[in-house]
Amino acid sequence: MEQGKKIILTGDRPTGRLHIGHYVGSLRRRVELQNSGEYDEIYIMIADAQALTDNADNPEKVRQNIIEVALDYLSAGLDPEKSNLFIQSQVTELTELTFYYMNLVTVQRLQRNPTVKQEMLLRGYSESGDGSDNKAGTPVGFFCYPISQASDITAFKATTVPVGEDQEPMIEQTREIVRKFNSVYGPALVEPEILLPDNAACLRLPGTDGKAKMSKSLGNCIYLSDSADEVRTKVRGMYTDPGHLQVSDPGKVEGNPVFTYLDAFCRPGHFDLFGDCFHGRKVSFDFHSLDEVKAQYRAGGLGDVMVKNFLAAVLNDTLEPMRERRRALEQDLPYVYEVLRRGTEAARAKAAGTLADVKRAMRINYFDPGVLEALIREQSEKYR
Ligand code: TRP
Q1: In this structure, what CATH number is given to the domain that contains residue 235?
Q2: Is 213 domain-assigned?
Q3: Residue 237 and residue 190 share a domain
Q4: What are the residues facing 194 on neighbouring strands?
Q5: What HEC string does 145-204 produce?
Q6: What is the pLDDT of residue 382?
Q7: With the C-alpha atoms ordered 91, 93, 98, 99, is the resulting torsion angle positive or negative?
C-alpha cells in the first residue's frame, strides 16, 4: 500500500448548477486544500451514476448538468494541474467494488442511515413500497448509494473527504465497510476521515427563505453563476427577522439568514463596501467587523435594506471573479471536456489498482500472472 500518502476524494451529484451552499460547505475548502500543497493526490468527482439512482427516468437532466458542474468547479478555482476532475460513470471499476461491498452491509444498517432516511421522505418514497399509499417505492440503487459512495472513496484510497455535514453518515458507513473488509480479507483498504467546514454558518447554509437547507427543489438558492442583478434581487427578497419592522426596532441576528450568509462570506476587506450600500447615500456607520454590524442591528437603527445591500455587495465581490472565469470557459468547451477526459483517465488508473488489490485480497484474481499456476497445482492435489 502507498503508506502515508494524503489523498482527497469528494464530489457532487450533477442535478443542477452549484449554489453558494455548495461553495461554503465544501467547494471553497477544496480549493484551499488543493492550493495548500499538502495533498499528494486529489480527485473531484461528478457523481452522475449516483445522481441516476433517483433520476432513472430523467437521465437527460443528469447528462446536461455534468458540464454545468464542471464549469462551476473550474470557475471556483479547482485547477486541473493539481486536481483530477472526473465523471463517475466512466470509472467502471467503482460499480465492481460496490458489488463486493454490498455483501459487507446489511439491509438493516442501510435503513438506519439518517441521510438516506431523510432523502426518502423528501422524495416521497413509500414506507411500504407496495404502492398501497399511492407512492412509489424506493429504487434499490438509491437505497444502496451509500455503498457505492464507499466505493468512490476507497477506490482512491482517500484519507480525507471534505464534504458537508449531511454526508457524515456516508463516511461513517464507508469506515465500517473498510474495517469489515480489512478484517475479513486482509488490509487492502484505507479508512477515510471526514473534513467538515470549521465555520458553523458554513455547515449548513440556509435557503434565502430561511428554510434549513438551500435546495433547487425549494427554489431558495443563490447559484454561483447567478448574475450580479439576480444576486441583488434574491438577497432583497430574503427572509430576515420578522419582528424587525421599523429601522429603529432591535433586530434578531440568530436564525436570520442574512447574518448567516454574512458569517459565511464576510472578510475584513469587505467593510469598505458598507458605505456604498444605502442607495448611494453617504451613511454615518463605520463598521470594522461583523460583530459591530450585529451589535448595531441588535440595538436597533440598522435597517434590513442596508444590511441586505451590504450582503449583496459581499456576495457579488466573491462571485464576480468566478462569473468572469465561467464566461471564458463557456466559450472553450473543448478545453473543459478535455480536462474531464484526462481526469477520468487518471481516476480509472487509480481505481483499477485498488480493484486489483481488492480482488487479490479476496482471492478472486484467478487469472493473474502466477496465480493460475498456483491454482492448478492446488486443485490438482484433489485428484491425485
Ligand atoms: N453524495 C454526494 C452528494 O450528494 C456526492 C458524492 C458521491 C460524494 N460520492 C461521493 C461525496 C464520495 C463525497 C465522496 O453531493
Answers
A1: 1.10.240.10
A2: no
A3: no
A4: 161
A5: HHHHHHHHHHHCCCCEEECCHHHHHHHHHHHHHHHHHHHHHCCCCCCCEEECCCCHHHHC
A6: 93
A7: positive
User: What is the best residue among 123, 167, 196 to mutate for testing ligand 1's pocket, by most ligand atoms within 8 Å of CB?
Assistant: 167
Whether 156 maps to a domain, the answer reads yes
Specify the residue with its C-alpha closest to ligand 1, atom 15. Answer: 12
Distance CA 320, CA 121 (A): 37
Q: What is the pLDDT of residue 127?
A: 65
Shared-domain flag, residues 88 and 173: yes
Per-residue model confidence (pLDDT) at position 122: 85
> Is 27's C-beta closer than 6 angstroms to any atom of ligand 1?
no
Same domain, 172 and 33: yes
Q: Is the CB of 47 under 6 A from ligand 1?
A: yes
| pLDDT at 57 (0 to 100) | 93
44 ligand 1 Cβ < 6 A: no
- Same domain? For 300 and 353 the reply is no
Q: Find cell 480482488 and name the residue.
A: 359
Same structural domain, 159 and 19: yes
Strand 41-46 with 84-87, pairing: parallel
| d(CA 11, ligand 1 centre) in Å | 5
Q: Which residues of the chain fall short of a pLDDT of 70?
A: 1-3, 127-134, 276-284
pLDDT at 273: 80
d(CA 162, CA 30): 7
Q: Does residue 215 sit in helix, strand or coil? A: coil
Query: Are the CB atoms for 253 and 244 separated by under 8 Å?
Result: no
Residues 60 and 102 in one domain: yes
The verdict on the CB of residue 51 being under 6 Å from ligand 1 is no
What's the structural domain count of the chain?
Answer: 2
SS3 state of residue 12: strand
Q: What's the confidence (pLDDT) of residue 101?
A: 98
In a domain, 163, yes or no: yes
Range of the structural domain that residue 129 is part of: 7-204+333-375
Closest ligand 1 atom to 164 CA: 15
Structure-block grid coordinates of residue 73? 468547479
Q: Is residue 34 part of a domain?
A: yes
Contact 196, 228 (CB under 8 A): no
Which of 8, 9, 13, 142 is the best mutation target for the ligand 1 pocket, counting ligand atoms within 8 Å of the beta carbon and taking the most? 13
* Residues facing residue 85 across a β-bridge: 44
